[in-house]
Design goal:
- The chain is mostly beta strands.
- The protein is built from three helices and 22 strands.
- The protein has helices at residues 273-276, 316-325, 331-334, and strands spanning 28-29, 44-55, 58-67, 72-79, 86-87, 94-95, 107-115, 118-126, 130-137, 143-146, 154-159, 168-174, 185-190, 197-203, 214-217, 222-224, 227-238, 241-251, 259-262, 284-292, 297-304, 308-315.
- The strands form five sheets. A five-stranded mixed beta sheet has the order 6-10-9-8-7, with no helix packed on it. Strands 15, 16, 17, 18 and 19 form a five-stranded antiparallel beta sheet that branches.
- Bound molecules: beta-D-mannopyranose.
């Protein structure tokens, strides 16, 4: 039993490995990483930055597949254990509300979040500039696109797993047309997943060096007795390019644009060959977690070097106490975020 309670239901078959002896960080990597290697299916050179949920006693996921023509798209995968995956050969066939084919030009960095009885796939796509696309499904057979939530430019949209104050709630990072040289996390709400407003600022790119260039939502926040636990990515710039690390924060339960605690150090940063070496070196990009209320276990899925998928583990007690012990939330982070 954990001291900090997650409100997420039990998942006894969560993928899991105990913390190795000698590890003094709050997250530890799966010893068999990466769990998805190169050329995972015909026509797809790399899978990374992908999201999974429990489904029908096993797991299902939406995977960023970089096709051999270089264009990213989203593929559906299924797994019995959350570690070994089988993919549909074809891209997810998105349709519009009339049931007609409606494919984005490209789609990347998908998240997958269940709210009430519906699963939402959220991704980055072209909407006369980079922005966010969303589709809903209840059976993982029909994926119906709904209205794009934001005008360009925007990235890293992450939906909360339940309505807050009766509203769907989403994090995102307004951005520019390129490889954004700036970026804070904002929050928006909607009564119906169509009209988005009540925009709030959540967190600024850090004064901490490891996240000094930009930050972006990662996995769907996990509801805990200490607030919403958010794993996000923080980016720094070096003379050899960006470095993406995983950070952690706790957001207020009822007003999640207020940051309660924000870890001043990264939770995980590129160290292993599959994180440091690849199509884009030095990238750890979290997109999903699985969690088990009973044991407090959390499994994190993260993209590695834009080439692989890796997994890392922690417990809610361990990560929450680490975030609190290294809390460096600023006054601005703690505000409601409206001016
Ligand atoms: C970001 C996104 C991610 C990618 C990262 C590193 O802007 O495009 O998909 O993992 O850059 O290349």
């Amino acid at each position: 039993m954990s001291n900090v309670k997650m409100i997420c239901g039990n998942l006894p078959n969560i993928p899991w490995q105990d913390k190795p002896a000698g590890c003094d960080m709050p997250l530890w990597r799966y010893s068999e990483n990466p769990v998805i290697g190169r050329n995972p299916l015909p026509g797809v050179a790399r899978i990374f930055n992908s999201a999974v949920v429990p489904y029908e006693g096993g797991f299902i996921g939406v995977f960023r597949g970089e096709q051999t023509n270089g264009v990213p798209f989203i593929y559906l995968g299924r797994s019995k254990d959350g570690i070994h995956w089988e993919y549909d050969a074809e891209k997810i066939p998105f349709v519009n509300e009339k049931g007609e084919p409606f494919m984005p030009k490209y789609a990347y960095d998908p998240r997958l979040v269940k709210v009430e009885d519906t699963y939402y796939v959220i991704w980055c796509q072209d909407f006369y500039g980079a922005s966010i696309g969303i589709a809903k499904t209840q059976d993982f057979k029909t994926f119906t696109r709904i209205e794009n939530p934001f005008i360009p430019f925007n990235r890293n949209a992450v939906l909360f797993p339940r309505k807050i104050g009766g509203m769907f709630t989403m994090l995102s990072r307004p951005s520019d047309s390129g490889h954004t040289p700036f970026g804070d996390i904002f929050l928006s709400q909607s009564p119906d997943m169509e009209f988005w407003g009540r925009h709030r600022h959540v967190m600024s790119k850090g004064s901490n060096w490891w996240e000094s260039v930009k930050i972006g939502g990662g996995a769907a926040p996990i509801e805990t007795s200490e607030g919403w636990l958010l794993f996000y990515h923080g980016v720094t710039g070096t003379c050899n390019g960006f470095v993406y690390s995983i950070g952690g924060a706790l957001l207020d339960k009822d007003e999640p644009s207020r940051v309660l605690h924000r870890c001043g150090t990264f939770l995980l940063t590129p160290e292993e060959w599959y994180e440091e070496r690849g199509f884009v070196p030095n990238v750890c990009f979290p997109c999903a977690t699985l969690q088990d209320e009973e044991t407090g276990r959390i499994a994190i899925y993260y993209g590695c070097a834009d080439s692989y998928v890796g997994m890392a583990f922690t417990t809610v007690d361990e990560v929450v106490s680490y975030i609190k012990a290294h809390d460096e939330a600023s006054e601005e982070d703690r505000e409601l975020g409206i001016r």
